[in-house]
């Protein structure tokens, strides 16, 4: 940013400079009049008279008065107006810079919040996936256990059925054997051609 100067400081500096210049002009005239009262030496070499030196001093005073009036009516209002315009312009620029910095800060803050929400959403998603996986594993284990139990029950029923069929087959075989043995033990009847 530019360094700001107070308009009164600028005009005061200019007025002080003018006063110093006039003071030295007057001193110059007084010294010349004192050193060369008849105007034969240095004044003559500069082609000046005592009246010229006096006029220079008067002109200097008129210049200081004119400068003071110009300062009061022209320079100071102009410098105040320029300073106000610069303040408004740089104030607007400063305000825009502040708003831009605040917007960047808010953008970074919102970005951090969005990232935090995304991270939390991913965590929840992973948690739900883990929970669903555990539940699926439980269901699979339960289904496996039930299938194993049903398999054991089916094997037991099958074993009972096999045992029942084996016993039935053995009893049928025993009956067949007994029938066969009884047929073998009985003498065969021979039929003769005689009919009674």
Notes on the protein architecture:
With 196 residues, this protein is an all-alpha fold. The chain has a domain at 7-132. The chain contains three helices and no strands. The chain has helices spanning 7-35, 42-45, 50-185. The longest helix has 136 residues, at 50-185.
Write the layout of secondary structure elements.
Blueprint: H1 7-35, H2 42-45, H3 50-185
Helix pairs in contact: 1-3
Cα Rg: 65 Å
* Overall pLDDT confidence: 79
What class do helices, strands and sheet pairing give?
A: mainly alpha
Q: With helices defined by DSSP (H or I, 4 residues minimum), what is the helix count?
A: 3
Tag the structure with descriptive keywords.
3 helices, single chain, mainly alpha, rod-shaped, about 85% helix, about 200 residues
Question: How would you concisely characterize the structure shown here?
Answer:
The protein has helices at residues 7-35, 42-45, 50-185. The chain has 196 residues and is mainly alpha-helical. The longest helix has 136 residues, at 50-185.
């Amino acid at each position: 940013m530019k360094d700001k100067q107070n308009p009164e400081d600028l005009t005061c500096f200019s007025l002080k400079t003018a006063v110093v210049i006039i003071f030295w002009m007057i001193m110059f005239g007084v010294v010349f009049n004192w050193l060369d009262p008849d105007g034969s030496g240095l004044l003559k070499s500069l082609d000046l008279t005592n009246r010229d030196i006096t006029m220079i001093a008067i002109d200097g005073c008129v210049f200081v008065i004119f400068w003071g009036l110009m300062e009061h009516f022209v320079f100071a209002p102009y410098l105040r107006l320029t300073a106000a315009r610069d303040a408004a312009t740089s104030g607007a620029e400063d305000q825009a810079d502040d708003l831009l910095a605040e917007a960047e800060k808010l953008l970074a803050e919102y970005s951090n919040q969005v990232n935090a929400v995304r991270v939390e959403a991913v965590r929840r998603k992973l948690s739900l996936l883990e929970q669903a996986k555990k539940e699926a594993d439980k269901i699979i284990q339960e289904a496996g256990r039930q299938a194993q139990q049903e398999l054991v029950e089916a094997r037991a029923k099958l074993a009972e059925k096999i045992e029942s069929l084996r016993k039935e087959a053995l009893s049928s075989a025993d009956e067949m054997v007994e029938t066969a043995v009884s047929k073998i033990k009985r003498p065969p009847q021979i039929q003769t051609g005689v009919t009674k």
